[in-house]
Input
Amino acid sequence: MTTMKRKSISLPPELEEAIFALRKTDKYCKCSVSEIMRPLLTMGLEVEETKVTEAVMKG
Output
């Protein structure tokens, strides 16, 4: 098991509701909130990194 630092973030109600709605789906029904948020954060960071890279390449 990897060692991960704990972080605390505040979520607006609409994000909290969206995450709990995902827990009701077949894909995420057995996942904890952390297990749902990790891949979502990773996807968001990859999208942002792509935008930054594209902006740098355009000059």
User: Anything to note?
Assistant: The chain has a mean pLDDT of 93. Helices lie at 13-22, 33-58. The two ends are 42 Å apart (CA to CA).
